[in-house]
Amino acid sequence: MKLYSAIITVGVTWSLAATAFAASGTGQAFYGDPPDDHHPWCVHDWNRPQPKVVAPRPVSELEPKARPPADAIILFDGTEASLAKWCSDKNPNEPTKWIVRDGAMECVPKSGYIRTKEEFGDCQLHVEWAAPSKVEGEGQGRGNSGIFLLGVEIQVLDSYNNPTYADGAACAMYGVSPPLAIALRPPGEFQYIDITFHRPIYKDDKCVQPGWVTVYCNGVLVQDRTQIEGPTGHRARTKPGPLPEKGPLRLQDHGNPVRFRNIWYRPLRPALPKGGVRGPLTVEATMAKRKEIAAMIRKDAAKHAGQQPAEMLRLFESVVYEKDAPTSQKAGQLAAQYVEGLKQLPADKLAAKKDEVVKVSDAFKYLAKFEFIPATFAPKAEIEKLIKAQGWVQAKGKAKKK
Question: Is-contact 86 222, C-beta < 8 A?
Answer without folding.
Answer: no
